[in-house]
Amino acid sequence: xxxxxxxxxxxxxxxxxxxxxxxxxxxxxxxxxxxxxxxxxxxxxxxxxxxxxxxxxxxxxxxxxxxxxxxxxxxxxxxxxxxxxxxxxxxxxxxxxxxxxxxxxxxxxxxxxxxxxxxxxxxxxxxxxxxxxxxxxxxxxxxxxxxxxxxxxxxxx
Length: 157
Hints:
The protein is of the alpha+beta class.
């Protein structure tokens, strides 16, 4: 009886995983696989009409946004806070008293434009700030993304 139950659960799980992956267009997954064949811990999110794959590559946290045709829209790579332009730290000190930069990322758009994202925190308050490549503020208080109910896991280990 236990074996039948185990096989039933395994079968149910297999269908669930297949159903999740079938929601991501083949062009998107093919494009991602060609660009990042060594990516691990891949998680997929649907963002509007586009798709975001969050993953690890060479011990770095990364994400790539692709449109439905598999074209890369932007690539985001977590970086050390010390890799941010100095002007970003100065901006935070002057405009967000008591806040500390807790995370940093480099974003490269499809058109080649480079941006930096700095997550700042003071107590329980977190904000994301977006800066151009020279460290000039682009956007303030970017809302944290709320994960959609359409998140897909893919284990590439």
